[in-house]
Amino acid sequence: MADDFYLRYYVGHKGKFGHEFLEFEFNKDGRLRYANNSNYKNDEIITREVYVSQSVIAELKRIVEDSEILREDDNNWPAPDRVGRQELEIVLGGQHISFTCTKLGSVLQVQNSKDPDGLRIFYYLVQNLKCFVFSLISAHFKIQPIQK
Amino acid sequence: MADDMDHDDRAQGVDKRRKGRGHRDTTEWADRYGGARFKELDPNAKPGPTASVEGWVIFITNVNEEAQEEDIHEAFAEFGDVKNIYMNLDRQTGFVKGYALVEYKVYKEAQAAINEMNGKMLLEQTIQVDWAFRKPQRRR
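Structure tokens for the assembled complex are given below, as produced in the milestone run.
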């Protein structure tokens, strides 16, 4: 199953407002699931699901491959802790990575870590993936404000 | 979300190269959804491209890294009124990441944009244009 593909990203923490997290998942059929949970002001979970085309999946694979994240390992990355947790799980090109890390607040935190180069790749890939997903979800679900 | 990846791998006798703490560190937060279902716009639709909440969205790739939103608007405005454009930058380099989403109100306009612009040149690069979203149908 060398053409198998899966991608999931999670970032979250537990605190005053419950288990606050953002998570999204793509499978190879193009099913995108998105979830954002917080109990801030008694809010409830937001979930969205849509099927994206194979063009979108192909572009997602390109973004992942270009980042070269599959060459990295999370051995020397700061582990999840009370501050928070990130998870990145990808199946692509016969590889299956499942990386965990604490929340990353800044490039300085990346720079001062034990594996700045690898962690930097993770740091920017996560940002690019979020941009990608937020745009897809907004384009499909968000109603635009009325322009005067 | 899906926790059955491992079962599939072993069942097929496939030995994927595995890396990462996440394989060993099973989170105690596995039941974070509390049974919540995932909201879709139209769960009972027939196969094909699908409408988004206020229009039809197309997906463009291989966009030149120096493209501006104006360039996209100019290239795609001839097919219909462009309701929305998303074109993200690479977070590290600041250049355009390479993809864009364009929305039209009407199916015909989006289909025309796909037909006319797929495989055409934009800022000296050959772009691909396709639907962004489709109705659920298990791909074989």
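Chain B touches chain A through 58 residues (CB under 8 Å). The longest strand of chain B covers residues 56-61. Further analysis is deferred to the final report.
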